Amino acid sequence: MNRIPAVSASNVCLQFGDVHAVKNVCFELEEGRFLTVLGPSGSGKTTLLRLIAGFQQPNKGEIFIKGQTVREVAPNKRSIGMVFQRLALFPHMTAAENVAFPLKMRRFDVRMIPDRVKKYLHLVRLEGLGGRRINELSGGQQQRVAIARALVFEPDLLLLDEPLAALDRKLREEMQLEFRRIQKELGVTTINVTHDQREALVVSDQIIVMDHGEIQQDATPLEIYRSPSNPFVANFVGVTNLFHGMLESLEGQKVAIRISQQRLIGTLKSEKLTLNQGVSVKAAVRAEQVRLFRGQSENRDCEVYFEGRVTDVIFEGERILYELSVAALSDALIRIIHHDQQDFSTFELGEVVFVGWKSRDMHVFVVD
Amino acid sequence: MRRNLSSYPLMWRLMDMLEAIFKKIWPKGGGFWSPYLMLSPAILLVGLLVLGLGYIGDASLRTLDTSTFLFSEEWSLTNYERALIEPFIRSVIWRSILGATIVTMITLLLAFPYTYVMVRTRSAFLRKFLLITLFLPFFIGQVVRAYGWLIILGKQGIVNDILGLVGIEPLRMLFNYPSVLFGLIQYMFPFAVLMLAPALTAIPEEIEAAAESLGASWVETMLHVIFPMAKSGMIGAGLVVLTLSLTDFAMPAILGGGTQDFVANAIYDQFFRTSDQGFGSSLAVLLIVIGSFLVWVVFVLVGAGTLAMGAKDK
Hints:
The complex is a heterodimer. By secondary structure, chain A is of the alpha+beta class.
């Protein structure tokens, strides 16, 4: 069965002078799915969202909504609800008037507007607060009004432009789950933009990682986390230790690399087309996959280990973040996330311990 | 440890010096009362004005005896009666009120799009151009500008010269009501723009994008979102233009040529031509009352706008 994707883009480019804000972006999003575009500021993720919303026109390429190109469709004629970064609620209207606004502008039947507004205020759990002015609502309640306003006219697509960025952590995490709940309840196709990797992993069915206007990886959250396709993704998602090195030999996916006179075994993640000895590579190990132990006898399954000195201990509650300086790797700093459910043993600042990982967990990428 | 002071930026050292001097002059400065003390020069300034107003109020209640040229000893409302009965004064008052109202409305109508473009344009050149065009007249002054209009619009002025080239008889464009209003609008325009600019700047562009994405056309966005949100700025600008043009002197005097007097011109005549300071004072008091009444009406109808200075509107 050949289904038409709810949203798709083919070779979308937008240039400002010499700067490529968005470059050759292609993706497909299935009906009812939650896509997050993840990237640092300046990666072009918000520009991509504005292109989809129609506030900007691509120089090249096409955007399709339900299989139809939207090049000639003005933003107010697209069936897209958008929640803006600073919410952009209308301060001179009440919460209910804000929610009713798109219904009036889109000429819905006047008799059904009050019921529809009520239904959506209920959906975002704001029943009874419709009469409040925007400045009489808390930050979280304002978020909810903005969501209701963007959804009340039942658009084909919901766009979220980092609306949670300004909230404090607790409220942000609460609203992330709230977005997820509402999205699942209505089944509305959603594109969310964020620089918060945790948010991306928590809420999405599909993640697109962007940098410098280009898509770095387009995959499920699990895949993005477990097998990043390049060093940028590896570094941007999760806490990752990156090493520069040189390729020595290759055997299947098993690769031997040299990092400051040390020979290490890792798993190759790049396409192996023409790999010569001596090409430079980047090796990435996730901080939670690095182990710490006091004596070699305690080593369980680390194929690679070094001696290192603890240079920083950061207690984060459910976990401890260590930073170690490893002499054998030219004093490279290695970050370790340490969960110890058993004996709450900790390592002291300045202590010399062993640090190691499995070769399976060291991902090696060829640098262009 | 002695720090090397010369390594600090000049501005910091200057500030340190000022602070040291201040400490010498007023060692106990910075206490609870000092902000109020700092208010005193301004209070004195306003206080003097109120004092003068008292004198005007007193003078307005004394009538001039034209045979002895002395003012009456006791108070009476004769001057006010005269002002409200005399047809000439009545027409001057109505002309001022009507003129100020028309000028306010047209100025706001013209200033809104100008300000909007100035605030929203992405072209730095256009913004600078609009700003310079706005500020240039400020450096010229009202009287010189009015004379400028005499040169341009006069019988032998530039406009009539050009009309003469295409065979049109010279038009009489000066010394009538429209020319006074025209001069006033041109004079008030920058004030209105400067009052409107902060109000429009305060409306994020995101709001307009939001309205658009929710289905509003450009006109609907203006009507339902931008105008209501700019309301307080419009009221502030309107009040400033209204009171300034109601009390204007130069434009009616120069562009009206004595035939289109506003209240300020009538007051001037009483003080400096007829030397009836009593009657002139009563006109001045009337002008204050009328102005305050108009402002009060606006306050009651639509609130104080930006002039409420953050106090709760309505």
